[in-house]
């Protein structure tokens, strides 16, 4: 059988066309995609519908721009083939409105146009179209452009979804890390609180042992020396009397030093009388020893029950550390200490939450805050660091205002949680 060259060429072109269409449709299930055809010419719509239905697309039809906007209002298509020359609202205006609607902003739009000048094509891209095909339409070209932009749309949506997942994953990881940091911070605070409690317990024990045991022993020694001196009387040699006198003075000095050390370790009145009387005693003692007058004022505490031992001890140590730093570094001649109860509006609930405010102000030489607070080496910032840690343990805040030659003011705010007074309040109610 003889086969003509024309027949062979037609068969080859058909095979190439089928191969090309097969490549175009690879990895896409067209039945999953919907296309809105917008054209006012029935013949154009018939050709497009017959052609695209063969590939399984879900097709919708609109004959005007207004009709197209209504068709996509509740269910956006996968892609839009939009004629430029439409009656009433033309394709350019229709495209603008589709891109202005968040529901259809990302839907790819391909213009169908018989306009051949470059200005119209550029205008189409400017209003938001992703491509264009010229009339008369070439079916293979239309299918190729539809496939390309559906793939691009899928790729873009996948990237957006991956980005959303990454953002969500990042947010979840961030929240997890913040929670872990908060838990670690709480654990550190708990450990620090326990360490502080152990230190204070040890201070209290040593202070009592010094006061009770060694103090009593030295008092007994002093009484015995006095008794011996009286029994020897005037007949004893001057050397013995002088040595007894020296031993008595040494016992008195040692006893006084032990008492001072005992008070420095832990004044018993902090446990017996509370914070305000102890601070009043301590500021007077500080003024006498350091020759720096301290003006102390405490208001609002007569309306409260005793604070918890932890809060009282922490505040006492904070004030003690501040005054010690003043004596060592400030060269101040006057100090003001104010302690009062204030209230602050909670940002979450809007309620008035009570808090303890301590303000210590001196007229000393001041210091460069940035230089001192950021200093890593040396001991200049150690006291401030210790105070800050104590304040943080109480969920409080602190603020320092200082400058060279302008003195220093430290303000500390400690929230009065219910547990801060409940323990001793309950004891007081039981006693009544």
Q: Can you tell me about this structure?
A:
The chain is of the alpha/beta class. Among the domains are: about 10-135, Rossmann fold (3-Layer(aba) Sandwich), CATH 3.40.50; about 270-430, Heat Shock Protein 90, CATH 3.30.565.10. Helices cover about 60% and strands about 15% of the residues. It is built from 13 helices and ten strands. The chain has helices at about 5-25, 40-55, 65-70, 90-100, 120-125, 140-230, 240-265, 270, 275-290, 310-330, 370-375, 380-395, 420-430, and strands at about 35-40, 60, 80-85, 110-115, 130-135, 295-300, 335-345, 350-360, 395-400, 410-415. The strands form two sheets. The chain has a five-stranded parallel sheet, sandwiched between helices. A hairpin with a 6-residue loop joins β7 and β8. α9 packs parallel to α10 (about 310-330). The longest helix is centred in the middle third of the chain and has 94 residues, at about 140-230. It is rod-shaped. Residues about 1-25, about 375-380 and about 420-430 have low confidence and may be disordered.
Q: Which stretches are poorly predicted, pLDDT < 50 over at least 5 residues?
A: 1-25, 376-380, 422-432
Spatial order of the strands in the main sheet? 2-1-3-4-5
Compute the CA-based radius of gyration: 45 Å
Described by the principal axes of the CA atoms, the overall outline is rod-shaped
Largest sheet: 5 strands, parallel
CATH topology of the domain at 271-432: Heat Shock Protein 90
In the CATH hierarchy, the architecture of the domain at 271-432 is 2-Layer Sandwich
CATH class category name of the domain at 271-432? Alpha Beta
Distinct helical segment count: 13
Query: From N to C, what is the helix and strand string?
Result: HEHEHEHEHEHHHHEHEEHHEEH
User: In whole angstroms, how far apart are the ends?
Assistant: 125 Å
Nearest-integer average pLDDT:
81
Strand content: 15-25%
Helix % is 55-70%
Number of strands: 10
Fourth-tier CATH superfamily name of the domain at 271-432: Histidine kinase-like ATPase, C-terminal domain
> Structural class, from secondary structure content?
alpha/beta
